[in-house]
Amino acid sequence: MASLLxxxxxxxxxxxxxxxxxxxTRARATRNxxxxxxxxxxxxxxxxxxxxISEGVGVSQQGLGWPYAPGIWSTQQVEAWKPVTQAVHxxxxxxxxxxxxxxxxxxSSVTGQQPVSSxxxxxxxxxxxxxxxLPYEQPRALAVEEIPALIATYVTAAHNARTAGxxxxxxxxxxxxxxxxxxxxxxxQRDDGYGGSVExxxxxxxxxxxxxxxxxxxxxxxxxxxxxxxxxxxxxxDPASLSRAVxxxxxxxxxxxxxxxxxxxxxxxxxxxxxxQSPIVRxxxxxxxxxxxxxxxxxxxxxxxxxxxxxxxxxRSFLANPDLPDRLATDAPLNEAQVDTFYTQGAEGYIDYPPxxxxx
Length: 360
Known about the structure:
Largest sheet: 8 strands, parallel
Oligomer: single chain
Number of strands: 14
Strand order of the largest sheet: 3-14-13-12-11-10-5-4
């Protein structure tokens, strides 16, 4: 059986180990969503990951409502990403850009536009903004006529990511953001070709993924899903049927990998009693499967041993432990993540976590 420290081929990318860095929003870009030099330090420190999946990177102003999050739709953004990817490569690492459209979870004070979604259903809770937390606004439903232009933003972002030096891209179809809002019938109440049946609800994900794969290669294209339990107010009444349909839709494309964030009953940042859906997806998706959420070394190795996953992505533990693969290999203690610095704009809690030799 493969161990966490064994290499694995993820499409076109030879990953040096099976400890992947999960996407983590960190809010260190400018207000114009341009990456900053400190981000090169952050990602370089974590280049020992088999593959880094970047924080969510906005495909358009319409879809990026998180303050100080980076985008990849402008020339300035692309140029600012180049030192980041170069730093990772110089350190021997590999990095994918996660392509992000937040759908109804944006606020017009950030984007200058009414949020969009599959249906005009307001999300519960509050949006992040430069003025602090504000109630979510009612989105408008994307018209069918707008969808080709939406797909084009993902294709442009994928091309831009490759120009910026990323080894590939991951399409963010999880966590209650736009594509997830089309996938799950708790939000998607459409009666056209993108709503109703599970096959219709999977259509947008399939069309975006195929278009990106055609643009940059399926072996440099990945997808992220979260299908078991509610995520930011987005849920489905029949996750098993949806999981099967998603896997069947993505299988022919030939993805580099499929990542699944799976909530657990005792999850530390989101919990669910809905069974995890990876065993269903595994039946219909034969490519590399990466699993995520609340893993430690033992549980990660168990899912490698049983053949369910080919790699495991770690989030907060990688945030606080830039040398996580070394720590897991030696059963070394882990730094605790500083929650109060997750989304601040400075170096504290970002690039100052002590490496293994300095840890107490």
